[in-house]
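Notebook entry, structure prediction.
Reason for the run: the old model in the group folder had no record of what sequence produced it. Starting over properly, with the input documented here first.
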Amino acid sequence: MMISVNEYGLDVFEEMMDNSDELQVEILEQDNGTTLIDAGVEAEGGFEAGLYVARICMADLADIRFSTFDLGKITVPAIELTTDHPVVACMASQYAGWRIKVKKFFGMGSGPARALSLNPRELYEKIEYEDDATEAVLILESSTIPDEEVTSKIAEDCRVETEDLYIVVVPTASLAGSVQISARGIETGIHKFDSLGFDIRCIKHAHGIIPISPVVGGDVECMGSTNDCIIYCGRMYYAVEYEDVEDLKGYVKRVPSRNSPDYGKPFYKTFKEAGFDFFKVDAGMFAPAEITVNELNSGKTFTSGGINPDILLESFGIEAL
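New structure, fully documented this time:
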């Protein structure tokens, strides 16, 4: 039997509700029955709330804990991830592949509910995953709480009743948002492998450590600094089973972010120079700084890329006193 990412995610959602006071989040009940958790829009949220959001995103199929990361001049908080189900946790659940737009509302949807809405369908066909849960759990990256029209549309797309829909809303410009975006490090590497034509089903286990960005401004500025954590200092480790070792070496060399022509400055600057048009930014930029890959059958291990703390410090805008 396949793991149900929505069943696993709902267990964490309920745990988050039980600990709402300690996590400084607010539970909202809509008239249509949808349950929402505000993890940073009006509620305070924080590091621990972000950890719960990351757990839901990965359907609780990863060990996620806080750590620290040395940027040379300073030490910053970091998130450390370990999973034995990387493709299901990251691609069937965590990947932010659902653009939710209803009238004036817009948010990026990720987490278990994507497996019911099949966003994007071709990805689920590729990894041969399906979930037939009757309850849907969604992480919505937005600075606005969705109204009932939005949640009704999400429920319809997931083929569940509105009272069986559970959503955590977390803004980019929040501590919880910073945590959950850094926790996407393993997924970012898998997605880059996939974009290069690698059969990601060969990825069996994964580990990563990624710095956590401070809140540096509004959503756009924080989108830059949070992505820079992965692009310039994200360190990932993958254990794979792949017969052609020479072919594997080529993929490992091409995955890190330094292969992008846009590499070399904070992402916010690149985005601004592109007129805030994502289509003018090289998609290959969204990748870990460094990856190490162990091929389990041959016993060979390869590494590529490297971290760039100076650019991350520039992105954070830290002022020494």
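Summary: The chain has a mean pLDDT of 96.
The old model has been moved to the deprecated folder.
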